[in-house]
Amino acid sequence: MAFYAVRRALAGIPTLLLVFTLVFLIAHATPGSPWDIGSNRPIEPSIKAALDAKFHLDEPLPVRYWYWAKGVLQGDLGDSVRIQKPVSELITEKLPVTLQLAAMAIEIALVIGLTAGVISAVKKDTWWDYGANVFALWGLSTPNFWLGILLILLFAVHLGWLPASGYVSPFEDLKENLASMIMPAFVLGNAFAAVLMRHTRSAMLQVLSSDYVRTARAKGLDERVVVLKHALRNALVPVITLGALGLGELLGGAVLTEQVFSIPGFGKLIVDAVFNRDYSVVQGVVLFTASAYILLNLLADIGYFLVNPRMRG
Hints:
Layout: H1 2-28, H2 45-54, H3 61-73, H4 87-122, H5 127-141, H6 144-158, H7 174-208, H8 211-218, H9 223-252, H10 255-260, H11 266-275, H12 279-307, H13 309-312
Helix pairs in contact: 1-12, 4-5, 4-7, 4-9, 4-12, 5-7, 6-7, 7-9, 8-9, 9-12, 11-12
């Protein structure tokens, strides 16, 4: 297994290098300068020249790439040109917020998606099956920002049960933290639940028609044992990969949701950085997200290797 893990890890290096280069080129292709943003008066030329020299913005593009690559290899993602703080420190501050949001979203997606997928497969061609498929279609078709606005109108404005926006640290008030995160977590997990449902249903239908499931039923085992112990366990093999990759997508796809609910996570950080042309922050956040996605992909491959005996043969 160690050889398999190393081989899969090495396969991710070219992808990371490509992302590394593309994010640098795209960030620096943005016209204008960070010093031209948010000021009613033009900045003094001498001050602008000093700031450009400090952040190597007066250097040719290949030289800037060299400085950034050298810093990344040394564990230094650079400093924010607007906030004047290390990018690694900003990531450390914002990461727990987005991690909590993504973790809650994937928990909601797993509960809804797996349950609906199993019921849909077991009750194939019944109203349960049709209802689960309608739910999946609705989840895939509903834009996150629109669903978020509807939830705010219902639960915050009309019912007054939940706060409309904002974030409270769980270390300050756990109850308020959960109240402020439940709506954005549901919005973020809604579409992924639909994807999980479709994959679980397809895998369950294939497993339920297999010989060993028919044998288990012929032995007189309870249908619940057959479905949950024999069928679902084997049907979860492809879902493991999907779940790990889904967590990576949720980490990177929380931009709109965090903007709608004013949550100070990765999404808001990178949106502010793009508008402010804060190159180091954009590069650092995208590079971190890509690295996390590749790592989760590696963990998914290892998990698939462990649960699938045929790959170990």
